[in-house]
Amino acid sequence: MNNSIGKIYRLTSFGESHGPAIGGVIDGVPPGIDIDISLIQKELERRKPGQSHITTQRKEPDYLELLSGIFDGKTTGAPIGFIIKNTDQRSKDYSHIQNIYRPSHADFTYDKKYGIRDYRGGGRSSARTTASVVVAGAIAKQILKNVRISAYVNAVGEIEVDKDYTQLDLSKTDNNPVRCPDEKFASRMIKKIEEIKKRGDTIGGQITCVIQNVPVGLGEPVFNKLQAALAYAMLNIPAVKAFEYGSGFAGTRMTGSRHNDIFNLDGTTQTNFSGGIQGGISNGMDIYFRVGFKPVATLMQEQESIDKDGNKTIVKGKGRHDPCVVPRAVPVVEAFTAMIILDFLLLNQTHKLD
Amino acid sequence: MNNSIGKIYRLTSFGESHGPAIGGVIDGVPPGIDIDISLIQKELERRKPGQSHITTQRKEPDYLELLSGIFDGKTTGAPIGFIIKNTDQRSKDYSHIQNIYRPSHADFTYDKKYGIRDYRGGGRSSARTTASVVVAGAIAKQILKNVRISAYVNAVGEIEVDKDYTQLDLSKTDNNPVRCPDEKFASRMIKKIEEIKKRGDTIGGQITCVIQNVPVGLGEPVFNKLQAALAYAMLNIPAVKAFEYGSGFAGTRMTGSRHNDIFNLDGTTQTNFSGGIQGGISNGMDIYFRVGFKPVATLMQEQESIDKDGNKTIVKGKGRHDPCVVPRAVPVVEAFTAMIILDFLLLNQTHKLD
Amino acid sequence: MNNSIGKIYRLTSFGESHGPAIGGVIDGVPPGIDIDISLIQKELERRKPGQSHITTQRKEPDYLELLSGIFDGKTTGAPIGFIIKNTDQRSKDYSHIQNIYRPSHADFTYDKKYGIRDYRGGGRSSARTTASVVVAGAIAKQILKNVRISAYVNAVGEIEVDKDYTQLDLSKTDNNPVRCPDEKFASRMIKKIEEIKKRGDTIGGQITCVIQNVPVGLGEPVFNKLQAALAYAMLNIPAVKAFEYGSGFAGTRMTGSRHNDIFNLDGTTQTNFSGGIQGGISNGMDIYFRVGFKPVATLMQEQESIDKDGNKTIVKGKGRHDPCVVPRAVPVVEAFTAMIILDFLLLNQTHKLD
Amino acid sequence: MNNSIGKIYRLTSFGESHGPAIGGVIDGVPPGIDIDISLIQKELERRKPGQSHITTQRKEPDYLELLSGIFDGKTTGAPIGFIIKNTDQRSKDYSHIQNIYRPSHADFTYDKKYGIRDYRGGGRSSARTTASVVVAGAIAKQILKNVRISAYVNAVGEIEVDKDYTQLDLSKTDNNPVRCPDEKFASRMIKKIEEIKKRGDTIGGQITCVIQNVPVGLGEPVFNKLQAALAYAMLNIPAVKAFEYGSGFAGTRMTGSRHNDIFNLDGTTQTNFSGGIQGGISNGMDIYFRVGFKPVATLMQEQESIDKDGNKTIVKGKGRHDPCVVPRAVPVVEAFTAMIILDFLLLNQTHKLD
Predict the structure, then answer these.
(1) How far apart are CA C117 and CA C107, in angstroms?
(2) Staple partner for D150: which of A268, B120, C134, D170, CB 3.0–4.6 Å?
(3) Distance CA C337, CA C232 (A)
């Protein structure tokens, strides 16, 4: 059960970065829904390596092959199986680290846990596994229809957009390679990443995600609160260290008299410190949250490390790596979000008999 | 499945704040383990209302009745059923809000979701449900034995302890009612809460939790990462808005060359920005995380609100409420943490056949 | 997860026969449904010991205490917690078997599995745990409304009713203590049980269950076929050795040309060898199945056995035991059936978005 | 969750008979175990169509492609993704039934449930989906090592082997195309199938399965009894109508004094009416059970039926179908059994901390 996520709309994922293919099975897909396969492929393009000069230059076409569950352009209710072949597997880029534990990578923990490690790239620990999430999310988005999910980069290192999402035009996110809808900040972020890359270093960042038109009533009052499911999904994205929704950590410094969201007569609220969720259940207002990513661990500069036998060694990234992960993580954040919202919508259906 | 948490060591919870009892069933308990029931009761005392002048004065003895699964002081491997009777149910304290939606409470969302609301207190949305978590956590702690879990209040409003956990003596946490191991900061926090309470207002805060002696290898590489399970648990605690582990949001502003944890020859690391988890899997270093709580929504002052029919109204808390939730949330954070760690330890057993 | 059953409508059970109470938590209950508690109690009476001269004389009032999830006579959508206290615990009736493994009982396997055994009665292995199933089933029946579930005894030992269910008046099942709707066969069965009881022996039997007015479409095509869920539930009833639905084992001897159910123009079928399920999915016809029970293992006569240390010994049942389990198992079969049908109905709701 | 089976060792299946491929993902595979891929392929050959003159002449090579989770001949602990391409898809064989509901097929129920039907063959309802089960079972067999699982055909129509499994040499099962280890009965069965086939008719049958060297202690006392999991798996095999283990239906006619299995001093029993399971838990004796299959619904002769619009029509199977399903079902029964036993072995690991 460790490679599945979701209760009703559930993705089961498989695949390593350097095996023949990665892929997944999506269960719980309602039947009879139109699916535009080119839109799934388009989301994969947003995630794939080599899409711009500020991402890794590794080239993977990330071409989706759908194997089941869609017939004549519609979901059938049967599980959707899919694969994405691994084509650009320069395993030799990794041969130098076969017996080495890279700092802040999963090499050490993976080896200790399983006693066997596919040293060709990250193996199962590779961020490449998020491509399967993007597929499941892109299908979820098409099923959701009315719900709008918009993620964007709100910070790269210390460069942080000084407006909140309500002051931004979220349709502009994909206008630049860093995926920040504020052009001015986008330029600064891109410059920062270029500079970091030149030094062979990496940098962290943050993504904000906004979910609009969510119906009231999604989420559960005790366990399985909606925010808990979102946090769970986000913390499963490689490199994520932090999650906050609504007022977040800033809200911890506020008083109740300021933080409480006063109702309008129609049940909407004047402020939205709650972030669209009260008592674990969506209230119909915008849901928004922020996700923090650490800097990528693979550096294009020398670092001290150890090998399997506990000897000192030096590692230096070869091949092609991202200096900053957040631009490519935007579609992953959106995909997980779409999966969660759809899952909760379907789960909510069980509250009634027709 | 919405009222269960955990995969192997699993708590299923039931009960509303003003019904006859709350309680739960704990499944997946290994047999033959000594349980000291007084230690469970002691954890309940740490959570219960009325324990000090800075918490609600509501008096509930929170007396645990164990109904199954423990025989002659040992776990039997059968599920542990338990109840805690609700004794101090001043339902009349709530009669004034029967048809009112309190700001930033679950009244509105609960009513919209279920179409029926137990208006006597929070009903199922009450934070009282966390008592069941404390029971399951207290049992998990006794099963874990070697793992040490220590949570403490690191901030109340803007008063934030200026040391990290390694500079504090965590055995002193319960020496004061605010549960901050730094006496100087504890005094300031208590004073702040007294002041806030006097104004009929409330304030947010933060809890830090440290897990020590966790074996290497807990957690999964793709979904079900250890940090994701911890985030999920924490975001299910009422009033929690934020979670970060290791370097957290601060890590998003760092470069990889600074953030990477360089190995010592024995596999430990010189720094611990990773927070004890690499690639979703524990690495044997301390795991630490921070949880942010919003200010309590019930104020002892008048606020505008609406009733079920969309009419304007005024609400003001009656009865007995917490001006700041973090001191009582400390045992809840520890309990959820113990449940997760035990669950992952048991899950890890399935990686091998004897 | 071993003490829960059901995916959406899910019972989590706890309790041993000689502890303070048995009970359970029912999750996934839709809100706003009228519940008549006396009807639940009535189902418990049908299962309870001491109800007639052909069942055990053990007296347990089996009084249901509901602790949550029902308010003002309606389900609230919150989990229903309940307990049934154990009152007539003559543990001394069991002291003679404390270290003995009774033949064809769970003593040996339980002890080997858990290394610890609550020797007071069957402990967790006691058929008394089925009382929790009866509660969950009685609530499911009330939620199902239109679906009619009727189980009856169709055989005691070699005495087998020579008509199928369509030739019987199923409203007469409870007219006699053996729960066989055919009066003539009922008399013969009762006489057989009296005779067996006099000899201190026991006898097996069979129960047929019919489910009427099930909507078309319940069940899944590959795993989670409706018949698989029914078989799973039935084989979890103590003493059950066999399950067949529709044509069952007799169907294995037939040709396809005879066995195929030819359609009427309205989609109903002329025969019903399929037993109301085709390809794992209900087809709207009556679902019917048969369950086989072995003879009760506890005999009121001497049998050879062994103790924990592998020494020969003699056991003889003391106290009060059933000579034939099927009359009391009828409400258990119905309860499990109701739980499964409701679970699949709710699960089916997830096939569509409103 | 409807397309997954197993709790720890879990297969998630996908694919329709006439899409590009079927396949699955196996989660919960312990790492470091040698896997001989040719043995998996060999099990697929036992199931595949066209293997003898008494099975369907449809030719599918059923060639397994492993995509992940096995590296250098060993399991890695990562999920095993695999596909089997559909190559011999004579969809035109089905064009005549596009709008027709075949008697005793899933056409009607599938259409009513999903509102959309892949009419090319059985679609998701095709028995071809059992190939994925065979893969997961073949891997489970290799992990189990010491446990021996042997299924064989014990009846075709009314021809039933007159010996029980202890009197047969189970190594001879695959010596003949009907997979009956008794040569004399095998000949009669084959003749019967040939005769039935000539008439364009079909016939049912039965499979017995024996599991040897199962350790004591698998299975749970209340829900998730070992026999319940086996029954669930078997009733998910297409065409299965009945399941009995140990004494089965015959046991319902016995007295307790005859049915009880008296212990030997070493904890084994003199008889084995219990079928190797007591109180839901394996006792170390052979586990054996019988599975009943109805006759195949597709006939090579004309039958009355209806179309989607409720008009009368005539159907007659075209293409290539099995006159009797049991010979090809033998590896499926074994595969499901291996999956269940392995799942329970792994689950049992969670009863202890190292």
Answers:
(1) 8
(2) D170
(3) 11
Q: Could you identify the residue written with the tokens 């918490």?
A: B55
CB A258 within 8 Å of CB B297: no
Instruction: Note the helical H segments in C15-75.
Output: 37-47
Query: For chain C, what's the residue count?
Result: 354
In terms of phi and psi (left: phi > 0; alpha: psi -120 to 50; beta: otherwise), the region of A267 is left
Q: What is the pTM of this model?
A: 0.97
Cβ distance B77 to C1 less than 8 Å, yes or no, reads no
Q: Distance between CA atoms of A192 and C349, rounded to whole angstroms?
A: 50
Q: Chain centroid to CA B270: how far?
A: 30
In a mutational test of the D interface, the residue from C56, C104, C227 whose CB has the highest number of chain D CBs within 10 Å is C104
DSSP 8-state symbol, B250: H
Residue C74 contacts by C-beta under 8 Å, 6 or more apart in sequence?
Answer: B116, C31, C32, C33, C34, C35
Structure token pair of residue B317: 């808390």
Residue A132 and residue A23: Cα distance in Å, rounded?
A: 6
B264 SS3 class: coil
Name residue A159's amino acid: I
Q: Give C324-342 pLDDT, tens digit per residue.
A: 999 999 999 999 999 999 9
- C223 → closest Cβ in D3, D105, D274: D3
Q: Which of D63, D61, D49 is nearest to D298 (CA)?
A: D49
Tell me whether 0.90 is exceeded by the ipTM.
Answer: yes
Measured between alpha carbons, how far is B351 from B218 in angstroms, rounded to an integer? 11
Contact C231, D232 (CB under 8 A): yes
Evaluate if residue B272 carries a pLDDT over 80: yes
Query: Nearest chain B Cα to C66, which residue?
Result: B20
Q: How many residues does chain D have?
A: 354
Compute the half-sphere exposure of residue C238: CA atoms within 13 Å on the CB side of its CA. 25
Q: Are B266 and B320 in contact (CB under 8 A)?
A: no
Whether the CB-CB separation of D265 and C109 falls below 8 Å is answered with no
DSSP β-bridge partners for residue A292: A206, A242
b (16+ CB within 10 A) / e for B128-154: bbbbbbbbbbbbbbbbbeebebbbbbb
Q: What is the pLDDT of residue B122?
A: 76
From the candidates D18, D66, D116, D124, which should be mutated to test the interface with A, based on the most A CB atoms within 10 A?
D116
* Residues B138, B45 contacting (CB under 8 angstroms): no
- pLDDT attached to residue D27: 98
Position A92 pLDDT exceeds 80:
no
Of all residues in chain C, what percent carry a pLDDT higher than 90?
Answer: 86
Closest CA to D119 of D20, D23, D17, D48: D17
Distance CA B256, CA B261 (A): 9
Amino acid identity, position D235: L
**How many residues belong to chain A?**
354
Exposure letters D65-98 (e unless 16+ CB within 10 A, then b)? ebbbbbbeeebbbbbbbbbbbbeebeeebbeebe
Do D190 and D55 touch, CB atoms closer than 8 A? no
Report yes or no: A222 and B13 within 8 Å, Cβ to Cβ: yes
What's the CA gap between B256 and B246, in Å, rounded? Answer: 14
Task: Give yes or no for a contact between C75 and C178, defined as CB atoms under 8 angstroms apart.
Answer: no
Cα R_g (chain B), whole angstroms: 21
User: Are C67 and B118 in contact (CB < 8 Å)?
Assistant: no
Q: Do A1 and D68 touch (CB under 8 A)?
A: no
Q: DSSP string covering B38-68, please?
A: HHHHHHHHHHSTTSSTTS--------EEE-S
The confidence band for D88, taking pLDDT boundaries of 50, 70 and 90, is low
The minimal CB distance from A30 to the residues C30, C77, C353 is found for: C353
Determine the Cα–Cα distance for residues A146 and D49; give it in Å rounded to an integer: 46
